[in-house]
Amino acid sequence: MPEGKFCNKKPVETEEELKALLGDTGGKQYYEEMKSLDVDQALLWKTIQNTLKSRMKTWLEICAHCGMCADSCFLYLINDQDPKQVPAYKIQSTLGEIVKRKGKVNNEFMRMVMETAWAKCTCCNRCGMYCPHGIDMGVMFGYLRGLCYQQGFVPWEMKIGAGMHRVYRAQMDVTDEDFVETFEWMVEEYEEDYPGLEVPVDKEGADILYTVNAREVKHYPEDLAEAAILFHLAGENWTVPTSGWEQTSLAMFAGDWAACKMQVEHVYAAMERLKPKRMVGTECGHAHRATVVEGPYWAGRSTGKPPVESIHYVEWLAEALREGKLKIDPSKRLKKPVTLQDSCNYVRNNGLKDITREIMSYIVEPGYFKEMSPNREHNYCCGGGGGFNGIGLFRPQRNKALITKRDQILNVGAEMVIAPCHNCWDAIRDLEEEYKIGIKWSFLKPLVISMVEIPEHLKLQE
Amino acid sequence: MYDFLTGPMFWLSLGICLIGMLVRFVLYFRGLSWQLDRVAYKAYPFQGFKGAVNSIVKWLIPFGTYGWRKQPFMTVIFFGFHIGAVLVPLFLLAHNLFLKEKIGLSLPTLNPLIADVLTWTVIVSAIFLALRRIALPEVRILTTWYDYVILLLAVAPFITGLVARYELGSYTSWLTVHILCGEALLIAAPFTKLSHIVLFFASRAQLGMDYGIKRGGMKGKGMAW
């Protein structure tokens, strides 16, 4: 059977298709259909010829097979140093083979490729730092995911996620109305505690345009209120857009480049409409990577930058604390062993390694902050990056992958892990559920709110 | 035979190597695409250049990167091999006497004792590089016959050169074999993995630009390779 009802080469474009696909619980029928999905070999080879140029061609060719990348990969280490988990092997036996065979690969091969691309690599890009030739296998796996997506060999949840962006311009079925209503409702909930608290919607020319992760709207609406509270206390002139508020991109994890472009252009349109001075995104790693780091390229912006200066939440927070817009009550600083999870997507892939530590210096009592080993740009993936957290089919592999982070946390003796990244936060929550090591985990917003001094004029009048 | 190898064949192999390498180097950079690679190379030439230099220089220093420090044994045999492999062919006294006679120019020359030590180090390191491929499962799984051919191609001129130098057997026949091996290496270089002689710099420069421009080079203190 060539194209299945659910598993096929066509992206999900409508709400009905999306609902039908979601109705196939766990992707049972979807994966069954995948077993007989045809590979369009001609299209595959044509795509490779058009898009696999100098950089990747050279990477595949000059790989010296030295194996120095092996130790850099947490999945290799945690899977008992299985040689099949060596990054160079993983990419040579998948993308390398497809290129060698000029796209003439079959269904079974492509299913192996899918498993390798989503369950054996989180695109954390750590291996690229340990290859003498500078071969970044994470980049190649990102590319390979695009080929898989084109051919319909993509995990069920990833196809849904990309479809969500196509239909809702959000990673979940959250509409623009849902977003504005939820934000306003949450702010109302807190306005008694914080007089004057508001969420300015669609305000032109604000200093800050705030964008979020749709999960916050759907599952963690307190996060929206917390963002509003901190902007309020810092006296910021901020706004949220009624449309173009979603910063994330599951389409990036899925390799659906067309949807990546649609999604990011939607956010850029909000920037162009409202003309803020800056855009600040929420505490999410891949959202920042998608909208700020990779997005400009999908949108064809030759400057490599979004329409307005765009920063991660940690950059705004560090600045607010540094400049005294937010003041921490020293007596309320964290006084227990605390560690910090470096998100691959904005630390290794956007250099924000020192700024998060600056925040630690303000909110953790001196002596209580502990560094994981390794850390900063050399840190290991949380174990659930690149979409790994969300794929049911690969849950056992993901749970095993969490052990790396679990042991890093245990080794440093931390009682709390600060994870300013949704993916890392989820992975650490899951590792606590799975392995029960008795740790707490948190975003920055609730911690800062618990210790920030409220300026006199914003205090609740008794 | 000797006259042919040191005459037309010398020029031919050297020409193929130099032109071939130049072509590969130029084609590499011409093939870079800011949109496909998602790196705004032209928008930030200074940051790109800084990132590229940093990325190359750090990896040229033994134990200069986290990667090298993580694998000290590999670092020793890697540099043991490459330092001699670069220095000896270029600066050996005999090679420069030959060059002087050919083109009237020569490069500074190595002390013969140092040249001997470097050559031995190349050979011993090559043996360890081969053994490492056999002994370590994570390297064995990647290794193909092609990797051994490349290693043999690279080390053959050193082995034959040393045999000739110690005059084991017939000096002139070993010298002929040595020249043959050297010329085979020169001809093969642009068309095989040996192209890494120049593409190493190209590829490292690219990743350096990537990090320098896009992945944080413009934020904070740059990359700790």
Q: What do these coordinates show?
A:
- The complex is a heterodimer of chains A (462) and B (225).
- Chain A has helices at residues 15-23, 28-34, 41-51, 54-62, 74-78, 87-100, 107-119, 137-151, 156-168, 176-190, 214-218, 222-233, 250-254, 257-274, 285-298, 313-322, 344-348, 353-363, 395-412, 422-435, 444-451, and strands spanning 208-211, 238-239, 278-281, 309-311, 327-328, 338-340, 369-370, 416-418, 440-442, 452-453.
- Chain A is of the alpha/beta class.
- Chain A has 3 domains: 39-154, Fumarate Reductase Iron-sulfur Protein, Chain B, domain 2 (Orthogonal Bundle); 168-311, no CATH class; 328-453, Rossmann fold (3-Layer(aba) Sandwich).
- In chain A, the strands form 3 sheets. In chain A, strands 2-1-3-4 form a 4-stranded parallel β-sheet.
- In chain A, strand 8 (416-418), helix 20 (422-435) and strand 9 (440-442) form a beta-alpha-beta unit.
- The longest helix of chain A is centred in the middle third of the chain and has 18 residues, at 257-274.
- Chain B is mainly α.
- Chain B has one domain: Fumarate Reductase Cytochrome B subunit.
- Helix content of chain B is 76%, strand content 0%.
- Chain B contains 12 helices and no strands.
- Chain B has helices spanning 2-6, 8-30, 34-37, 45-60, 66-70, 72-91, 93-103, 112-135, 137-140, 145-165, 171-188, 196-214.
- The longest helix of chain B has 24 residues, at 112-135.
- Chains A and B meet through helix 4, helix 6, helix 15 and helix 18 of A and helix 2, helix 3, helix 5, helix 9 and helix 12 of B.
Tags for this model:
heterodimer; A: alpha/beta; Fumarate Reductase Iron-sulfur Protein, Chain B, domain 2; Rossmann fold; 3 domains; four-stranded parallel sheet; 10 strands; 50% helix; B: 225 residues; mainly alpha; Fumarate Reductase Cytochrome B subunit; 76% helix
